[in-house]
Amino acid sequence: MRAGPMSDLHLLPQDSFAPVCAGVVGAGYVGLTTGACLAHLGHHVVCADIDEERVERLRRGEIPIVEEGLAEVVAEGLSSGRLTFEVGAAAAAADADVVFLCVPTPQGADGGADLRYIETAAAQIAPVLKAGALVVNKSTVPVGSTRAVEDVLERPDVAVVSNPEFLREGTAVYDFLNPDRVVIGADDRSAGERLGDMYAGLNAPVIITDPASAETIKYAANGFLAMKISFVNAIAAMCEAVGANVDDVVEGIGADQRIGKAFLKPGPGWGGSCFPKDSRALVKIAADYGYDFTMMKGVIDVNDEQKRRMVAKVRRAVGLAPGRGLKGTVVGVLGLAFKAGTDDLRDSPSLTMVSSLIAGGARVRAFDPTVDVAPEGAKATVLAGIELVGSVREAATGAKVLVIATEWPEFAKIDLAELATLMQTDAVVVDTRNLLDAAAVRAAGLRYDGVGRR
Ligand code: UDX
């Protein structure tokens, strides 16, 4: 994976640069990153959200999400005056030459993307858009949605283009400013080039294609990455069966330049706000157009199975016969976020594992450095039954099993000797991220079970 050092932020060469008045609809992780980074590049940006409290906080420079470097670029935009925050989509669009739609497209009941927010945003900006404005769809949307936005806008003078984002949570600012490529889908090439000019100087290839291809690129990229992880998790399962070591296998296959090492880290299964919904949407879109995408279904099945395999490891660790419950077993869980570097709990494999452990009767004590208060709303439902604690030490105390569920770097530095004294006798570390050195854990007097490790 690419690193994300913030020192690599760079500004465009100003002589070749034409600042644009941009509006961004949605101040979530995509919209806020897009708005703040566009301002960093020198554009004038109005970033809008429907949540008044969020807008108020952003005006004070308070960042609602954990995202490295975001506070800095927002502060820079606020102090330069190039970044302002407003309530409501219309406020972002009124004076903008280019409007970016960055609203969520959650998974709908049928597995496809729910376009409600994007259609509402389009309807709200339609009457206020300047003549000849450009509308940019950054939300991940089913193929054909660029046209759907055009239909809602009913503004023949306004071009709509697709510009999918490939930002990873945790390194979104770095990724925005150092993209591998910029993808633009436009029926009208000059509209695509107009958007491409906004990114001039980012030192990335700009791929201009038609809207359907741009929309497909986004799904294909996420589908392929999810496939790599499911593949390596399946290989890890095989390694466990045949007595091989997945770390060595990945090194061996990754040395082949056609394969590469990136995105081949075994774990508890992929999660987050993108892969689960996009992989299902890909299957759904394919089915809608008459293609049965069995390969992608397999990728999803392997991922579901992977989470169950991790729970089975806990059961095995305490010597449970099939069908027996975990009642009375104290399980410490390190990490709730779907990966390190974020506080995002959406579709987190950790939560799936925890729910299953609790359903099986276990008493779960969990610690995550970014989840320190009793969560509200949807999170509370998922987290019901978890005892949230404030440190690794508390999570481990009296536990029979310690599950490492998120790869927070601080978990790699656990004092193993102390851990052994805190946990029950004959305790087990189930390391779903292969974060710890198995030999060192065993040397400390604990049992160890990783993923695909001998
Ligand atoms: C992803 C894509 O990387 C990004 O391009 C897209 O725009 C949004 O979706 P993100 O959801 O932030 O980004 O997470 P990412 O870092 O890609 O990880 C996704 C999941 O895969 C996580 O659950 C992570 O733990 C898991 N993963 C990743 C592995 O298990 N092994 C790996 O080798 C890499």
The CATH superfamily name of the largest domain is NAD(P)-binding Rossmann-like Domain
Note the total helix count.
Answer: 18
Q: How far apart lie the N and C ends?
A: 25 Å
Question: What small molecules does the structure contain?
Answer: uridine-5'-diphosphate-xylopyranose
Radius of gyration: 23 Å
Number of extended strands:
14
Ranges where pLDDT stays below 50 over 5 or more residues in a row are 1-14, 377-382
Q: What are its keywords?
A:
454 residues, alpha/beta, Rossmann fold, 2 domains, six-stranded parallel β-sheet, 14 strands, 42% helix, disordered N terminus
Outline the fold blueprint.
Layout lengths: L20 E5 L3 H12 L3 E6 L2 H8 L10 H11 L2 E5 L1 H5 L4 E4 L14 H10 L8 E4 L7 H9 L5 E4 L9 H6 L4 E4 L3 H10 L7 E4 L1 H32 L3 H9 L20 H14 L5 H24 L12 E5 L14 H11 L3 E5 L10 H6 L3 E2 L3 H5 L4 E4 L4 H4 L3 H7 L5 E4 L6 H6 L3 E3 L5
Parallel strand pairs: 1-2, 1-4, 2-3, 4-5, 5-6, 7-8, 9-10, 9-12, 10-11, 12-13, 13-14
The site of uridine-5'-diphosphate-xylopyranose has 19 residues, from helix 9.
Description:
With about 450 residues, the chain is an alpha/beta fold. The protein folds into two domains: about 5-210, NAD(P)-binding Rossmann-like Domain (Rossmann fold); about 210-454, Rossmann fold, CATH 3.40.50.720. The chain has helices spanning about 30-40, 50-60, 70-80, 90-95, 115-125, 145-155, 170-175, 190-200, 210-240, 245-255, 275-290, 295-315, 350-360, 380-385, 390-395, 410, 415-420, 440-445, and strands at about 20-25, 45-50, 85, 100, 135, 160, 180-185, 205-210, 330-335, 365, 385-390, 400-405, 430, 445-450. The strands form three sheets. It has a six-stranded parallel β-sheet with strand order 3-2-1-4-5-6, with helices on both faces. It has a six-stranded parallel β-sheet with strand order 11-10-9-12-13-14. A two-stranded parallel sheet has the order 7-8. α5 packs parallel to α6 (about 145-155), α9 crosses α11 (about 275-290) and α11 packs antiparallel against α12. The longest helix is centred in the middle third of the chain and has 32 residues, at about 210-240. The chain is elongated. About 45% of the residues are buried. Residues about 1-15 and about 375-380 have low confidence and may be disordered. The structure holds uridine-5'-diphosphate-xylopyranose. Uridine-5'-diphosphate-xylopyranose binds near residues 166 and 267. Uridine-5'-diphosphate-xylopyranose (UDX) binds near residues 229 and 338.
